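sorry for the late reply, my laptop died twice this morning and i had to redo everyting from scratch. anyway the thing you sent over, i finally got around to it. pasting the sequence first so we're on the same page, its 468 residues, then the predicted structure underneath. double check i copied it right bc i was rushing
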Amino acid sequence: MVFTTHIFVFYFLPLVLLVYFNLPYRWRNLFITIMSYVFYGWWKPWFVILMMISTIMDFIWARVIAKPNATSGRRKVAVAACCATNLALLGFFKYYMFSVESLNSLLEFAGLPAFRILRITLPIGISFYTFHSLSYVIDVYRGHAKPAKNFFDYSCFVALFPDLVAGPIIRYHTLADQIAYREHNMTRFASGVAIFILGFAKKILLANTMGDVADAVFNAAAPGFAAAWFGLLAYAFQIYFDFCGYSDMAVGLGRMLGFEFMKNFDAPYRSESITEIWRRWHISLSSVLRDYLYYPLGGNRKGEMRTHVNLAIVMLLGGLWHGAKWQFVVWGGYHGLLLGFERWRGRKSAYERLPRSVRIASTFLLMLFSWVLFRAENLTSASRYFGAMFGFVPANSTAPVLAAEIYRPHFVGIMALCAYLTFQRVQAFDWSLEPHTWQRLPLLVSLFLFALIVMFNQAFNPFLYFQF
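ok and here's the structure:
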């Protein structure tokens, strides 16, 4: 199920809220778990079985680790087994086809027969709930979190539908107290409604519109210089408002149910360096990679060379986490090189002495280059698109038709609005926390109704991060 569908807006969400607030408190976590399974199983019911197996398995591992009489060796074996089983499941469903296809390419190059590829359906959101489960068990092992009091509390954490399939990545110790007890009041509920509407509008009105432009340009054989840059800008705004919009909706839904999730985006395109942008973009993922990968590898504690190696490993794996394709590995390597360079300069960019507006523009330009790798179907398509951006691949005879399609006043106006909202200081997360939210109700309702009307006139358009 998707937040931006009539099934969710008119049926699922009202039913959840109506039943939830009329249940005794002790039954609410169980009810959230059941409805989260319904939400997740809406695509394919068997997805629920896989998530349930992972949930039961990790709940048991944490119990084994937390036993008072558990020896150090037994705890290490338990956490190692937990990591191995979770990563094996994730690896099979997400990376099996990528691995075999890469191996077959090598075999074909060597003139050897290729393996037969078993086609695997990637369960939506498996990366996110696997990170949730792994972080829980590892935090219990490290002593950063106490094990869940019962299975229903833990299953509620893993399956919590607002952030189940696309984040933000929530850690158990930050939510444990809220699972045990959370306060419900009109102020929190109102702020939740406000930020949900803003996120809904971001997705429907901005991200989907920019997605139409980006799809048209990236699917063109030879878009030409100007169209290539226009399409890339459209994709940069699409992926930002798509994922930021989802995170806003997740935060809003969480507040309606009494939960408070972390802020996942902090005006990332206003950053003045690549180091800063990774403190502002998908903040929950950056913190997970830092705490569960970068620090265990040694962080910056083992010399300058080891620090650069650790950064490279983290970003390469971070790229591969986003997708089982070589362009994501190159994307991660590109950011690893930029972060390593800025680390070598004391976390400063090469353009630190330029005016602030130029620093922001330079960082945004570097980010744009990486989005080509993120959007292209493969490395060949990415290289062809770069060629169009720099005039090495001339536009073909269909370029005027493409130009007429993408430079329509509606698209140009939405892109201008995206640019304004992207680079202004106040973000939806902060705006929703301001007092007197109810006084803005007429504006919010009008925006929501307009977004609903537009939604019914759009083709089904799932969130981009569902594929990761």
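The longest helix spans residues 72-109.
thats about all i looked at so far, will dig more tmrw
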